Amino acid sequence: MPADHTLPFEGGCDCRAVRYRMTSAPLFVHCCHCRWCQRETGASFALNAMIEADRVILLQGTPEVINTPSNSGRGQKISRCPTCRIALWSNYAGGGDAVRFVRVGTLDEPDRLTPDIHIFTSSKQPWVVLPPNMPAVAEYYDSEKYWPAASLERRRALMAKPKRT
Ligand SMILES: [Zn+2]
Ligand SMILES: [Zn+2]
Fold it and tell me: Which of 65, 71, 121, 108 is nearest to 90 (CA)?
C-alpha cells in the first residue's frame, strides 16, 4: 500500500512535553542503516523524514539542541525533549538549519511514512531483509536521481530563500 500522505502528521516525545506538527508530507524518507544510526537508535536502522524546518511547527514545549558527532565528521544537532530526552529530529551540516530529519518513530501514526530509499546498506544488519524493488544504495545517493520532481522543486525553493541569521 502506498504511504498515506494526507494531513496532519503530529508527533512528540514520550512524556508529551514536546509536541509538533508537520504541515505537509516530507521531501523524502530515509531508512538509514549506518552504524551511527544504529548506535543512536539502539536498534538496526533509523527512519528519518526530511522536511523543510518551517513545515515543522511546535505545538507544545521547546526541544533542547544537542551537538552530536556524525558520520560526515561535520556533526549534527539533535533536538531532544528537555525532560525525557527523546530525540525528535536532527539537523545535519548538509541541509543546515533549513532541513529537519524528523524521526518517524516519534509520529503518532508512524506507519503512515514508509521509506523512499534505504541508505548505507553496506552496514545493514544481515537479518534485515529489504523488500524487492525498493531503492537501496550501499552508502549515499544523488537526490536528482531518486527524488520525485515535486520534492526537487521544493528543495530548489528552499535554497533560493535568503538565509535567516
Ligand atoms: Zn519528553
Ligand atoms: Zn545513518
Answer: 65
